[in-house]
Amino acid sequence: MSKKPVFLVLGAGAGIGGNVAKKFAKEGYHAVLARRSDEDGLNKLVGDIKQGGDEATGRLVNAIEDGAIEDLIADVEKNIGPIEVFLFNLGAQFGDRTLEETPLKLFEMGWRLTSLALFRVAKTLAPIMEARGGGKILVTSATSAMRGNAGQHAHAAAIGGRRLLCQSLNAELSVKGIHICHIYIDAPIEAPDTIGKLLGPELYQKLLEERGNGKDMLVIPEKVAETYYHIAHQHRSAWTSEVDIRPYSEQPWWNN
Ligand SMILES: NC(=O)c1ccc[n+]([C@@H]2O[C@H](COP(=O)([O-])OP(=O)(O)OC[C@H]3O[C@@H](n4cnc5c(N)ncnc54)[C@H](OP(=O)(O)O)[C@@H]3O)[C@@H](O)[C@H]2O)c1
Asked: Options 3.30.300.30, 3.30.200.20, 1.10.10.350, 3.40.50.720; which CATH number does 6-189+220-244 get?
């Protein structure tokens, strides 16, 4: 068991998930990083945090398996400590696919990974947090939660529904001391494990050269981590339930 408050992120790659975990660990939390498949990547993120003198633990978990989310929460509560902040960082970006290229299974997978998985988190964790008098659930999201678009059928339906789930959860749980914030990132992120893999090495390198590398035209995860930390520490008289983030060079979604 840790003596520190616990921060748990589900979906911890080298982008948002890993960097927000690093920030919370630096600020005195025990960071628990859970991701699906990349054990070496997980060990590297956990090792980097520990090398900085902070506390971290890694877990390999496939969130869509039956019982996986429920078991993860029970395991962390029992073996590491009470979860004070939970970051739900799973997306469902399958790339642009026409209606014809979107099979029923993929559409369903998007919903399982995002809306249903967050519902499972809330069903398991909210009663525990409520019994303790409160907690925080932060949800990373994307532009498609705000508007549909060609090729985004599975993605937009999944995360648009999840946005409304956040609102419903907040309406019921805020009075019980549980703060839920839907944080939507309205631009590409420097995230080698998600957009990097979706694009492939050549296109991702091109994106970094055109918009990254000091140009600040991609969202930089360690900068975003400051916002996540701030939201989790707002006074209850001034909670944010939704926030948007984009680089200076981007037009907001409603302008393009
Ligand atoms: N990347 C972008 O350009 C972008 C833009 C706007 C919004 N977003 C949002 O940002 C969030 C993701 O942040 P990020 O892109 O910076 O990614 P990240 O934190 O670098 O990585 C996310 C991790 O989620 C893990 N994951 C995927 N499916 C999983 C499952 N079934 N069970 C457990 N873990 C799973 C993957 O682990 P493994 O690698 O081990 O499989 C992946 O590394 C999503 O909510 C997404 O919608 C991303």
From this structure: 3.40.50.720
